[in-house]
Design goal:
This protein is an alpha/beta fold. The chain has a domain at 2-104 and 137-146 and 170-185: Rossmann fold. Helix content is 38%, strand content 22%. It has helices spanning 12-19, 38-45, 61-74, 91-96, 117-124, 159-185; strands at residues 2-6, 26-32, 50-52, 79-82, 101-105, 128-135, 145-152. It has a seven-stranded mixed sheet, sandwiched between helices. α4 (91-96) links the parallel β4 (79-82) and β5 (101-105). α1 (12-19) crosses α6 (159-185). The relative contact order is 0.16. The structure holds 5-O-phosphono-beta-D-ribofuranosylamine. The site of 5-O-phosphono-beta-D-ribofuranosylamine has 13 residues, from α1 and β5.
């Protein structure tokens, strides 16, 4: 099953997916909306074709998503895994891949949606936060939850320590969930 990973950042989740030899997907494309992002270099190391683009170069989201849909279809992509793609997916792309776009988010949703989930959980002083993998819909970090794993926050933690612990859980949970959902759908 061919899949695309969408990422805008460092790509540690992309890397975790690439390093798992037991996944039922072939990552056929990395889509990146930030030319120059570290994840692009990682994709090159794994010989994954990169589609990078600058959203501001397009008149609208509908226009660049149309182009994305064409490229994804050309590459034979059936599933999309968002891994730090910091952008809302619009109705065209959502419609073209209905029920086949998955996101990973560093909190126990619905708590702490949005860009700074780890910082917000840390500031709030909760004793448990975690990681959520979910299907996306038109909202920000909403959509049906597939799996969650909690991560404890200790009094002596710095935000950096919490972030490390959350990332370790992400790197294990995302490949596990990909195995589960693709197994069920093939
Ligand atoms: C992850 O924490 C993910 O949950 C969030 O963005 C971050 C991406 O990190 N959506 P990386 O680029 O995979 O290292």
């Amino acid at each position: 099953t061919k899949a695309a990973v969408f990422a805008s950042g460092t790509g540690s989740n992309f890397q975790a997916i690439m390093e798992d030899d037991d996944l039922p997907i072939e990552v056929a494309l990395l889509v990146c909306d930030k030319p120059g992002a570290t994840v692009i270099k990682k994709a090159e190391q794994y010989d994954v074709p990169v589609l990078d683009f600058e959203p501001s170069a397009y008149a609208s989201k509908a226009i660049y998503e149309q182009k994305l849909i064409e490229e994804l279809e050309k590459a034979g992509v059936e599933w999309i895994f968002l891994a730090g793609y910091m952008r809302i997916v619009g109705p065209d792309l959502l419609g073209a891949f209905e029920g086949r776009i998955v996101n990973i988010h560093p909190s126990l949703l619905p708590a702490f949606p949005g860009k700074d989930a780890i910082g917000q959980a840390y500031q709030a002083g909760v004793d448990t936060t975690g990681v959520t993998v979910h299907f996306i819909d038109e909202g920000i970090d909403t959509g049906p939850i597939i799996a969650q794993e909690s991560v404890e926050l200790f009094p002596e933690d710095t935000e950096e320590m919490l972030k490390k612990r959350i990332q370790q859980v992400e790197h294990n949970l995302y490949p596990t969930v990909i195995r589960q959902i693709i197994g069920q759908n093939t």
